Amino acid sequence: MTEREHLERDLRSLGPTVAWPPTPDVASRLELSPRRRRALVAAVALAVVALAAAFAVPQSRSAILRFFHLRGVSVERVGTLPRAQELPLAAGLGSPVDDAGALSVLGGPFLPAVHGTLYGRDGIVSTLLRGPVLLSEFGAPEFLKKFVTSNVEWVDVAPGVQGLWISGAPHVVFFFPGASPRLAGNVLVWATDTRTFRLEGRDLGRNDALRLAREIMGTSKG
Amino acid sequence: MRRARRGDERAFAELVRMHQEIAYRIAYLISGDEGEDAVQDGVLKAWRALGRFRPGAPFRPWLLRIVANEARNRRRSSGRRAALALRAEREDVSGGAAPSPEAAVLAADERERLLSALEGLPDDARLVLACRYLLELSETETAAALGVRRGTVKSRASRALERLRESYD
Lengths: 222, 169
What we know:
The structure holds two protein chains of two kinds. By secondary structure, chain A is of the alpha+beta class. Chain A has helices spanning 3-14, 26-30, 34-45, 99-106, 206-221, and strands at residues 64-70, 73-78, 95-97, 118-121, 124-129, 133-138, 144-148, 151-158, 161-167, 171-174, 182-184, 186-191, 196-201.
């Protein structure tokens, strides 16, 4: 046996003695309730790597029931929500920006074309719609992290455009990297290839949210 | 496989269950503590990409390629080199029964020394040897996991063995 063959044999014999960490049972996580399964499939449709480090939260939230992504949005189901403030919808949205400013942040014009005052902060452009409903758009893929105990439902916003409808109990959102978490009301998030949209309103209903989203997407086609 | 491709999640989960251990270990080798998230997201991406899976092709290298890609992306985004925590077990791995002939080849302290030498290699060399010998992947599977050609696996493994021999002697 050559020296190299000896070394190969020794390496092979090392294999069974390595103390690997326990393998997570990802297969069982696929075999979940129908609703959760659909949410997971939805997540994959637009899966991205979440910038978890930017939204560091205490490790003590041990009851995380796994998570899913929708482009820029990472949603984690948890047993207990992290502590968060209740703030007005318009709090902390940043400074007013004009259409050119929004375009440079988003890589395309803010939708809908007709809109109220725009506010920009950290790559997110927002405006308040009647309701009040907060519409936020972001072009960069990693921005939002949500913790929910409430309902999450997979919805078709438009042909080929899928979204998540989060409703029921308020959930916690880390809206900007490094910002304090706040409680959020009902939310519809959806994403295209280049942009993520988010509508939020405490009294926002599922059908109204979808109608609004389709109007916004309709504008995009024009 | 046919059921999985038709959208049967349970059939896909069964396939994943057969290969999740090896997939996780590769993800762990590449991205350390990010390995669990990498294997989960990789599996989800594989599920979504099943429509592009070539019928008749082997499933395992295909899955390993996707999971390993996910692990590499996570390591790049975290900006950290994976801090491996591999440790050769001092106790008998067979749980009290007679050690297997292979495990008995090296004494415990020699295993520690060899593992330490392996850990000291540059990443490319460490990964190719870990895939080929610790995980006993085929050249095809190693190529899929490392995102290189089979020929590259051969030459890289050969050079890595030489480096390991130099540092282990």
